[in-house]
Structures are given as structure tokens and as C-alpha cells.
């Protein structure tokens, strides 16, 4: 992973409050497949105004 990618990930993580991150984690842990988690994370990024980071 490139240094730029790490910085970008850190920026995304900082965009969410601790409580938001915990809620997302709990929802992800209850999902049965990786595809469901990806869809949920894509939706959360879009909702947070970070939709440009979603790769389709």
C-alpha cells in the first residue's frame, strides 16, 4: 500500500466520529458476506459526503 493510500485512509477514518465508527463496525460484524459489508461501507461513505472515494 502506498503512502498516499495510507494518508487517504487515515483522512477517511477521521471523517467519522468514534460513535459512528462503532455503529458501522457493529453492523458490519453482523453481516454474512464481504459484499454486504462493501455495499454498506459504500453507502456510509456516500452519506458522509465521501462518495468520490467509492470505486464501483
SSE layout and pairing:
Blueprint: H1 3-14, H2 18-29, H3 34-47
Number of strands: 0
Number of helical regions: 3
Radius of gyration equals 12 Å
- Our count of domains comes out at 1
What does this structure look like?
By secondary structure, the chain is mainly α. The protein has one domain. The chain has helices spanning 3-14, 18-29, 34-47. Helix 2 runs antiparallel to helix 3 (34-47). It is globular, with a radius of gyration of 12 Å.
Task: Give a nutshell description of this structure.
The chain is an all-alpha fold. Helices cover 68% and strands 0% of the residues.
Could you name the key traits of this structure?
mainly alpha; globular; 56 residues; 68% helix; 3 helices
